[in-house]
Write a structure and sequence with these properties.
The complex is a heterodimer of chains A (about 260) and B (about 200).
Chain A lengths: L5 E9 L2 E2 L14 H11 L4 E5 L4 H17 L4 E4 L5 H10 L3 E4 L1 H5 L2 H10 L4 E9 L6 E5 L4 E6 H11 L3 E6 L11 H10 L4 E4 L5 H9 L4 E4 L1 H4 L5 H10 L11
Parallel strand pairs in A: 1-3, 1-11, 3-4, 4-5, 5-6, 6-9, 9-10, 10-11
Antiparallel strand pairs in A: 1-2, 6-7, 7-8
Helix pairs in contact in A: 1-2, 2-3
Chain B lengths: L1 E4 L7 H8 L5 E4 L2 H6 L2 E4 L5 H10 L2 H11 L2 E5 L1 H4 L2 E4 L8 E2 L4 E7 L7 E6 L1 E3 L12 E6 L1 E3 L6 E7 L1 E9 L2 E4 L7 H13 L2
Parallel strand pairs in B: 1-2, 1-3, 3-4, 4-14, 5-7
Antiparallel strand pairs in B: 5-6, 7-11, 8-10, 9-12, 12-13, 13-14
Classes of the chains: A alpha/beta (about 260), B alpha/beta (about 200).
InterPro entries (chain B): Class_I_gatase-like (IPR029062), GATASE (IPR017926), Imidazole-glycPsynth_HisH (IPR010139)
Pfam family, one (chain B): GATase
Subunit structure (chain B): Heterodimer of HisH and HisF.
């Protein structure tokens, strides 16, 4: 027996509601993050991620409420990302019940934020989200901002290495080229990042077929995050896990008692 | 009544709800008389060994755990709350190791694995007669840590493998501890918590 691979659904939340359609499960309220979290939990999600896309500070306050309610009802790890800029933001989310937080742009603008968060709360709470794409940078992969529209003028592998030294506990690697295509994860990018990251690696972007999940694991991902492929019912979490288990991966099946 | 010791480590509200799910009355407290007299005491812990130990001592938690043990009253340590029950630990330590409560005379040392933390769901192998794992022997539990005990202590042990064999849980009379987070381990974790509460 060994450590299981992880399947992580990601929910976009704004002003306390889940956005992007969720049209496959029998929900009384498809916009309720707590109900969605609970449903994914019973389907076998190994962790949950909320991405807060609220534009206003009142929207962010509402997110704290959502985190609080979810953490009190769903007993699996919860990561929250989106708009986190200070140690104080992290403190609020952890107090509300988040187990991990993910940072992205704020760390690019001020890498020292990584060390500040790690020193205060430990590396294990800190996920670095990296939006990367293929480009003519040193390694062939560069970091982007603004949802992949802008180059951060930063080599992706150099950034991951630096972030590991500064104290991140986990890397969430989003392929901006593959994102939304359902044509498969960017395998070359996962392999390249795996070589320089000495912390767990979550791959994201491009999941389509069941084989795609297996290929990303073979490339070195420890965990796989997906949004639309689950929300739109292309695959159920249980089906992905069943497939991977049949292929010989170590997979946690949800407890039934 | 179950008391969860509040010494400034981690979010305690979700832990409280997980223990309440077992049907128990649960308080989060830093009051030593409440912590001493509770039927069961939970010592959580998130962060670094030395920081947690400082926090524990600031509320007199080290004494409370020792006194409870002598009186035969149950204590459950979770994650770093397990680690600080040991003699010492080498996390960010200099020449001298960080001192723990010393319930168990072994050290907490860095896990020998290329990728750390050990993060995610892992299974356990149980040695001895376990109360905690009754009915969940084959389940997975959620771990997040880079340091662990490597040698057996107590009457019953659960072992996991990540790079090497690490101690995932201990049961030793009134004192028990889990390296994983039962409050984050879904239905299996809630069952383990229930097993502990019902043993009190």
């Amino acid at each position: 027996m060994s450590l299981s691979i992880r399947i992580i659904p990601c929910l976009d939340v704004t002003d306390g509601r889940v956005v992007k359609g969720v049209n496959f499960i029998d929900l009384t309220d498809a916009g309720d993050p707590v109900e969605m979290a609970s449903t994914y939990n019973s389907e076998g999600a190994d962790e949950l991620t909320f991405l807060d896309i609220s534009a206003s500070s009142s929207g962010r306050e509402t997110t704290l409420d959502v985190v609080r309610k979810t953490a009190e009802q769903v007993f699996i790890p919860l990561t929250v990302g989106g708009g986190i800029r200070t140690v104080d933001d992290v403190d609020k989310l952890l107090r509300a019940g988040a187990d991990k937080i993910s940072i992205n742009t704020a760390a690019i603008e001020r890498p020292q934020l990584i060390a500040e968060i790690a020193d205060r709360f430990g590396s294990q709470v800190l996920v670095l989200s990296v939006d990367a794409r293929r480009a003519r940078s040193a390694s062939g992969f560069e970091v982007t901002t603004h949802g992949g529209r802008k180059s951060a003028e930063l080599d992706a592998l150099a950034w991951v290495e630096k972030a590991c030294q500064l104290g991140v506990g986990e890397i969430l690697l989003n392929s901006m080229d593959a994102d939304g295509t359902r044509a498969g994860y960017d395998i070359g990018m996962i392999e390249a990042v795996r070589k320089v990251a000495n912390v767990p690696l979550i791959a994201s972007g491009g999941a389509g077929s069941l084989q795609d999940f297996a290929r990303a694991l073979d490339a070195g991902a420890d965990a796989l995050l997906a949004a639309s492929v689950f929300h739109f019912g292309v695959h159920r979490i249980g089906d992905v896990k069943k497939y991977l288990r049949e292929q010989g991966y170590s997979v946690r099946m949800p407890a039934t008692f | 009544m179950i008391a969860i010791l509040d010494y400034g480590s981690g979010n305690l509200r979700s832990a409280q709800r997980a223990f309440e799910a077992s049907g128990a009355d649960v308080v989060v407290t830093r009051d030593s008389s409440v912590a001493l007299s509770a039927k069961g005491l939970v010592v959580p812990g998130v962060g670094a060994f030395a920081a947690c130990m400082r926090g524990l001592m600031s509320v007199g938690g080290d004494d409370i755990v020792r006194k409870r043990k002598e009186a035969g009253n149950a204590t459950l340590g979770i994650c770093v709350g397990m680690q600080i029950l040991f003699r010492d630990g080498d996390e960010h330590a200099g020449a001298e190791l960080n001192k723990g409560v010393g319930i168990w005379q072994e050290s907490i040392t860095k896990i020998n694995a290329p990728v750390l933390p050990h993060m995610g769901w892992n299974t356990v192998d149980i040695v001895g007669n376990s109360t905690l794992f009754k009915g969940v022997e084959k389940e997975s539990f959620y771990f997040v840590h880079s340091y662990a005990a490597k040698n057996a202590v107590g009457k019953s042990q659960a072992w996991s493998t990540y790079g090497e064999k690490i101690l995932a849980a201990v049961e030793d009379g009134p004192v028990a501890a889990t390296q994983f987070h039962p409050e984050k381990s879904g239905a299996a974790g809630l069952k383990l918590i229930k097993n502990w509460v019902e043993s009190l």
